[in-house]
Amino acid sequence: MKKYKVPRGTFDILPEESFKWQYITKTFRQTTQLFNYREIVTPIFENSEIFERSVGDTSDIVEKEMYKFQDKKGRELALRPEGTAPVVRSFVENGLHLKPNSAKLYYLGPMFRYDRPQKGRYRQFYQYGIENIGSENPFIDAEVIAFAFHFLKELGLQNFELQINSIGCENCTKEYDIALKKYFSKHLNELCSDCKTRLEKNPKRVLDCKVKNCKTIAKDAPSMLDYLDEDCKTHFSAIQKYLSEMQIPFVINPKIVRGLDYYAQTAFEIIDTNLGAQNTLIGGGRYSKLVQQLGGANISGIGFAGGFERLLLSLENENIIFGMEQKPEVYFVNLGENTKYESVKIISNLRKNGISCEFNPDKISMNAQMKEANKKGVKFCLILGENELKNNEIILKNMFTSEQQNVKRDKIIEAIITSKKS
RNA sequence: GUGGGUGUAGUUCAGCGGUAGAGCACCGGAUUGUGGUUCCGGCUGUCGCGGGUUCAAAUCCCGUCAUCCACCCCA
Fold first, then answer.
1. Phi-psi region for residue A168, left (φ > 0), alpha (ψ -120 to 50) or beta?
2. Which nucleotides of chain B does any protein CB come within 7 A of?
3. Whose CB has fewer CB within 10 Å in chain A, the N or C terminal residue?
């Protein structure tokens, strides 16, 4: 028989793991309530153009990482590689800027990129994210960052660092790129080959290079922050002031360069320094032209996205206690043939009364049933045998204390409820 | 797309030319109406796949696929 495996870069979330994912989802949803964000659910696939237009057709995501396909009518579609563009598409398509309470949106779900898998990076990966569309007020920037910060704290995470930067608007970038090119061309021979091409395509990327030589050269490169115009400068310092007032610690990292084309001004990352190469927990930033690019009004937005897989790695590193795996409350032990119809009746009645109950008809001996009850970690066993059937009773055993009592069968529910409290 | 490590039981791994092994997990029994601890017994494999070398390959060689880590990129 042929054995099948999950496709490369994908994975199953098994029952023994899934409660951890639920914990993250639950905590995220709680945070959305606190900040009053509402869920938006968009399709898993979109017209390819939406990403090509917004993310930037020279970006790696569009150039080589998109799962593109044609449907039977020849439509060019793509599995979504990220969440912002679809949300903005929907925002524009449905005229959400005219609807009340629709500027603050959150989403959850799988994204797809044809990357080479490695630690913390998969081809199908799960993201949570928020978008706040319609305001340029720096308070919103600070609030979006505060959301991310609050969420991680709420999960119980300790070791992470918030890094912020402003990459300026179009005007600032123009001058800055010229300055960077001028600086780096003096050191052209010392740069790695990747950086030589970066210098042409997107000189800011050189700042991000991890090659030692490039790093040392980049150290003395002109800083973006010195090239911000007045508007961007005041915007950026306002954010810092707000963050300080909210007691959110941050460091300014002028080397943060968001990879996607649509970013402008605010860029931020939250990283976990003991995670490995893929250590960005959350990445976000402001986009000023994206809404317009996708056919909407000339309004700006800001958002972030984070990956579940990396978050899970961090949480496990820090031994965060997740929610508990679900357990049944009662394990039902049936002894023999004559009692089985009465057993079925009782089990059904328990569930009607909201008491979760497990029963295994394939286990015959009492020993085997008790063993399984123990393995499942239930607090109670209900035991029904010939004697109890005759006396109209049943045994209720507390597995934690080993105490047991005979109770009348019409008093089972009450007996369990009172024992639950003790 | 590039480089390196690793593929053996459900799982973690040992074996590294001569009849496929251990721990954990699972199942059963000791206890035929009472679990956890203990003891006893049992189950499972195209040794990732294809080819080559050899009297003989899990073991050596080549290819391939998968996986992990790193580059790249990013969540």
1. left
2. 1-3, 26-36, 65-75
3. N
- State the ipTM, two decimals: 0.87
**What beta strand segments (E) does A40-142 contain?**
45-47, 68-70, 76-79, 104-112, 124-133
Measuring from the CA of residue A309 to each C1' atom, give the nucleotide at the shortest distance: B75
Would you state the CATH architecture of domain A330-421? Answer: 3-Layer(aba) Sandwich (3.40)
Q: Where are the domains of chain A?
A: 15-169+229-317, 330-421
Q: What CA–CA distances, in Å, run from A94 to A14, A86, A90, A111, A393?
A: 37, 12, 6, 22, 62
* CATH match for A15-169+229-317 among 3.30.930.10, 3.90.180.10, 3.60.10.10, 3.40.50.300: 3.30.930.10
Q: Which of residues 238-277 of A touch strand B (CB under 7 A)?
A: 257-260, 269, 276-277
Q: Is the CB of A79 under 7 A from strand B?
A: no
Q: Is the CB of A104 under 7 A from strand B?
A: no
Find and give the residue nearest to B48, measured CA to C1'.
Answer: A3
Chain segment A272-294, per-residue pLDDT in tens: 987 878 899 999 999 988 999 99
| Whole-Å CA distances, A354 to A287, A324, A347 | 49, 19, 11
Q: What is the pLDDT of residue A411?
A: 95
Of residues 179 to 208 in chain A, which lie within 7 A of strand B by their beta carbon? 194, 198, 205, 208
Whether A110 sits with its Cβ under 7 A from any strand B atom: the answer reads no
Contact A257, A267 (CB under 8 A): yes
Average pLDDT score over residue span A340-356: 95
pLDDT in tens, A194-217: 777 777 777 777 777 766 677 778
Per-residue pLDDT of A108-155, as tens digits, reads 999 999 998 988 899 999 999 999 999 999 999 999 999 999 999 999
Say how far A6 CA is from B58 C1', in Å: 25
